[in-house]
Design brief:
This protein has 237 residues and is an all-alpha fold. The chain is built from seven helices and no strands. It comes from Variovorax ginsengisoli. Pfam families: MotA_ExbB.
């Protein structure tokens, strides 16, 4: 291989088969990683938008029954916060229909339903995040494996030469190092995206937990109002 052939494409074409397979694997993983990054970005953006929209409706003064009716009709397209609210209200109404009058039982049932829904929603939001973490942690080592194999192959070929110079060593070493470079190319975007998405998901989780507590407090005030109307102010929610 002469000096004009030291391009990445030429190096890969002249690399040994194991190195080529490693590079091909890393390219496939990188493409899948970028696809997961874009899907997760738009999914989190939509989740934040739906949560903010429902939160505005929730605090706008609309009655809980109206919000629950809307959430039930819009269940397929609702956001995590709206589905958590619907789970809590559904359990609350079921217990009331069974003539459960104990305030603690009603609140505990509603809270447990919201917590179960919260965990399901969080699992859905975190989907594909572990894939990005795996790509970010494993890709450099896969690339390093390709590099080590390529260097071994290059030195094996040089052993048969009577005279070894830099021009004979450089192409074999360069084609081996390409695997490490592509491994880093696959890993770095995945690590950056994982860290950013993890922070976004933490913010969403905190917002959902805060909503559960606020909604539980609202249910408690409503129950207290039914038991002792004079003990609450007319301000309601």
């Amino acid at each position: 291989m002469n000096q004009q052939d030291l391009s990445i494409l030429s190096l890969l074409l002249h690399a040994s088969l194991p190195v080529q397979l490693v590079v091909l694997l890393l390219i496939v993983v990188s493409v899948a990683s970028w696809a997961a990054i874009f899907r997760k970005y738009f999914a989190l953006k939509r989740t934040r938008s739906l949560n903010e929209e429902f939160e505005r409706d929730f605090w706008s003064g609309t009655s809980l029954n109206e919000l629950f009716s809307s959430a039930a009709q819009n269940a397929k397209f609702a956001g995590p916060m709206e589905r958590i609210f619907a789970s809590g209200m559904r359990e609350y109404q079921k217990l009331r229909e069974r003539h459960v009058s104990d305030t603690g039982t009603l609140l505990d049932g509603s809270r447990r339903a919201m917590r179960a829904s919260y965990q399901r929603e969080l699992d859905a939001v975190e989907q594909n995040l572990s894939f990005l973490a795996t790509v970010g942690s494993v890709s450099p080592y896969v690339g390093l494996f390709g590099t080590v194999w390529g260097i071994m192959h290059a030195f094996t070929g040089l052993a048969a030469l009577a005279q070894v110079t830099l021009s004979t060593v450089a192409p074999g070493i360069a084609e081996a190092l390409v695997a490490t470079a592509i491994g880093l190319f696959a890993a770095i975007p995945a690590v950056v995206a994982y860290n950013r998405f993890a922070r976004e998901i933490d913010k969403i989780a905190i917002a959902l937990e805060t909503f559960i507590e606020e909604f539980s407090n609202i249910l408690q005030r409503n129950l207290t109002a039914h038991v002792n109307p004079a003990s609450v102010t007319p301000a309601g929610r």
